[in-house]
Amino acid sequence: MLRIGLTGGIGAGKSTVSTELARLGAVIIDADKIAREVVEPGTPGLTELVEAFGNEILLPDGTLDRPALAAVAFRDDASRTQLNQIVHPKVGQRTSELIIAAPPHAVVVHDIPLLIENGLAPTCNLVMVVHAEEQQRIDRLTSHRGMSPDDARARIAAQATDEQRRAAADVWLDNTGSQDALREQVRHVWHTRIVPFEHNVRTGNDVLPDEAVVEFNPEWEAQARRVIARLWVLCGGLAKSIEFVGPKRDSGEPVVDLLNIEIVVETEADMLQIGKLLSAEEFPASPKVGLHRGADPARPLEIQIRHSK
Questions:
Q1: Mind listing the pLDDT tens digit for each residue in 92-146?
Q2: CB half-sphere exposure, 47, CA atoms < 13 A
Q3: Which domains does the chain have, with CATH numbers?
Q4: 3-state helix, strand, coil in the chain (%, to 5)
Q5: Which alpha helices (H) appear in 255-296, and where do they start and end?
Q6: How far apart are CA 204 and CA 121, in angstroms?
Q7: What is the 3-state secondary structure (H, E, C) of 71-108?
Q8: CA distance 146 to 195
Q9: Which of these, 301, 286, 1, lies nearest to 123 by C-alpha position?
Q10: Annotated binding site
């Protein structure tokens, strides 16, 4: 199963991307939709919210009055924490149920507006970010959602910056043009990267680099940081260190476009355990002991695991 994280600032066009991915065959898990489902009338979630914050958070028909809930739940840190303790576990449980229900070889897209803000990017095999310029987003929010310009700006300011999203993005989707142009980008990524990536993960195939030498690309280190963050999630406390060892600018010569990452562990047993964890995900083992490669067709890489004892 390939897990894609989909995010973007409010008004950037994430819904268009999600709809197109669903049309192409992805299983969409919409975090906002789940968050609404777990507090619908008759659910334990809504009952617990009323017990915590009172009947004034309900509309006359018994549904949740979200602005009223926000007014009381975000008045201080204690109330916000209480809200999160009620809602987040239920969202997590429902998300797990949907993942289990998905076909074993599905491409699962986690549509999460606050993916970057909540530090969830490293839990995904691939992160897609939808981008539009701030004024475009303000115009869309005022014309399509009825927000005031000031409200739109405040909502945008409360989210991650474009720089933070770009640092987390494996795929950057430009929605400064037409919706047709955005959909075409999605189709291109689906057919050239996502589908072969899923196939490689499912079959245990790795991606070998083109042996042609290339000039240093400053984007390599940013790519390596994303891979390393992912590896820390997978390795847990087994790794002593995970470092990007090349190619780097100070090599002085053109090199093969291949990220080299080294994981150091305490013992040979730890080395074997991490190898199993990597092989179960998107980093299949090579014939050489301790060496793993990537399954992402757009990012050739090698991970060398060694123990210090």
A1: 899 999 999 999 899 999 999 889 998 999 999 999 999 999 899 999 888 888 8
A2: 4
A3: 2-201 (3.40.50.300), 213-307 (3.30.460.10)
A4: 50, 20, 30
A5: 268-279
A6: 23
A7: HHHCCCHHHHHHHHHHHHHHHHHHHHHHHHHCCCCCEE
A8: 38
A9: 1
A10: 11-16
Q: pLDDT (tens digit, 9 = 90+) per residue, 3-29?
A: 999 999 988 999 999 999 999 999 999
What's the pTM? Answer: 0.89
pLDDT reading at 252 higher than 70? no
Query: Within 13 Å and on the Cβ side, how many CA atoms surround 224?
Result: 22
DSSP codes joined into one string, 135-154: HHHHHHHHHHS---HHHHHH
8-state DSSP, 160? -
Angle, helices 44-53/77-101, rounded to nearest 10 degrees? 180
* Of 299, 295, 26, residue with least CA distance to 187: 26
In angstroms, the CA 167 to CA 218 distance is 13
Task: Describe the crossing of helices 14-24 and 179-189 by its angle, rounded to 10 degrees.
Answer: 50
d(CA 249, CA 252): 7
The pLDDT tens digits for 188-234 are 999 999 999 999 999 999 999 888 888 888 899 999 999 999 999 99
The per-type count for the chain, helices as H runs and strands as E runs, is 12, 11
For the cut 80, the answer to whether the pLDDT of residue 309 exceeds it is no
Conformation bin of residue 204: beta by default, left when phi > 0, alpha when psi is -120 to 50: left
Per the annotation, where are the binding residues for ATP? 11-16
